[in-house]
Write a structure and sequence with these properties.
Blueprint (H helix, E strand, L loop, with lengths): L3 E4 L8 H12 L13 H13 L11 E5 L5 E14 L2 E13 L7 H11 L4 E4 L4 H9 L3 E2 L3 E7 L5 H11 L15 E3 L15 E4 L3 H9 L5 E7 L5 E12 L2 E11 L6 H11 L1 H4 L7 E7 L10 E3 L4 E3 L8 E2 L12
Parallel strand pairs: 4-5, 9-16, 12-13
Antiparallel strand pairs: 1-2, 2-3, 3-4, 3-9, 5-15, 6-15, 7-13, 7-14, 8-10, 10-11, 11-12
Helix pairs in contact: 1-2
């Protein structure tokens, strides 16, 4: 059987046939662990808008993915791409997050063709895969992708969950640590929307990380199914000191806010700790949901990891840096895959 692989162009509206294919793929039982809405073409169309139409990093010429067609021209596979801009010392590195690799069971022999096309993009783009299946993880390793390392999780109870007493217990397990002490922060304020920020400094530490703009922070704070909030600590001049985007989860009666995306822009790297301290002390003034009683913060790999050991978790973030950038170190956060954009 002959196959054709086509690049995806256009926007969500012009790719409604792909949305229909993905929904049918799920309805037919070909996805092992579907999420709510995966069987609805309208949900996929909304995701396309988040990935491409609303994305400030997505341009007309940006790669959006590949479609696999059979002899009859019917769609039998799809591999999506979400464009991003990363940077090293202010220099832009074009990047792509891979998403939604669906191929009909009867056409799995054509999978390598799609992977070859994806592989060709790695010569120019920094590639990220944040939710690969167990089979894909092995394959990504053979293709030269690196893994971010283990995830270390820390917990900060608010007063409604015991506050300082609970924190002391968690510190005994190494799952919490002392936040920076009170400093003179007169004039500092917490921005609850990115548009309240006046300026964003550029880190000059030689690390590869997502480019931070007011537009990109607004986008990441507003897309996706999971409810989320933006927290930005700014100094008296309106310059961003640190930010975090939190996703809300409820489990076993605990209302948690998971700080999944963050950057510390302070030279002493105490900005994020000061931000977390503010959230624990005055959630009503910081935009944190009032029923929240626990903050969770995760670090990927050993870089930036506090002295406390943390609760060790596995990480499924894989990435590949273009050959002309191999000498730079990547700064990883849990928010980098496609899951926050679903």
């Amino acid at each position: 059987m002959g196959y054709r692989i086509q690049e995806v162009h256009g926007n969500a509206e012009t790719n409604s046939d792909i949305a229909g294919f993905l929904a049918a793929f799920v309805r037919d039982g070909e996805l092992g662990k579907p999420k709510p809405g995966d069987d609805d073409a309208l949900v996929w169309a909304q995701r396309f808008r988040w990935w491409w139409d609303d994305n400030p990093f997505c341009q007309e010429i940006s790669p959006k993915g590949f479609v696999l067609r059979d002899d009859d021209g019917s769609i039998v596979g799809f591999n999506g791409m979400i464009p991003f801009e990363y940077e090293v010392n202010g220099e832009i590195v074009p990047s792509l997050v891979t998403t939604t690799f669906f191929v009909r069971e009867a056409h799995r022999s054509a999978v390598m063709g799609l992977l070859t096309r994806q592989r060709s993009l790695a010569r120019k783009f920094h590639m990220i895969d944040g939710s690969p299946s167990p089979e894909m993880r092995q394959l990504l390793g053979r293709l030269g992708y690196e893994k971010s390392g283990e995830r270390y999780q820390y917990f900060f109870p608010l007063s409604s969950l015991g506050g300082s007493v609970s924190s002391a217990v968690l510190r005994g397990f190494g799952w919490c640590f002392e936040l920076p002490g009170e400093e003179d922060e007169s004039g500092y304020y917490m921005a609850t929307h990115p548009e309240e920020i006046e300026s964003i400094p550029v880190l000059q530490d030689g690390k590869l990380r997502r480019r931070i703009t007011i537009e990109s922070l607004s986008w990441l704070s507003s897309v996706g199914t999971d409810e989320r909030s933006f927290f930005g600590l700014c100094n008296e001049f309106g310059e961003l000191v640190a930010y975090a985007i939190g996703i809300y989860k409820k489990r076993c009666g605990v209302n948690a806010c998971l700080l999944m995306d963050y950057v510390d822009l302070q030279p002493d790297r105490n900005g994020l700790g000061r931000l977390i301290r503010r959230l624990t002390k005055s959630k009503e003034k910081c935009g944190l949901h009032l029923d929240t009683n626990l903050l969770s913060w995760s670090v990927l790999g050993s870089a930036g990891k506090p002295v406390a050991p943390g609760l060790r978790r596995d990480s499924f973030l894989y990435y590949q840096i273009p050959k002309d950038r191999l000498n730079c170190e990547k700064s990883c956060v849990p928010f980098e895959g496609d899951l926050p954009l679903l």
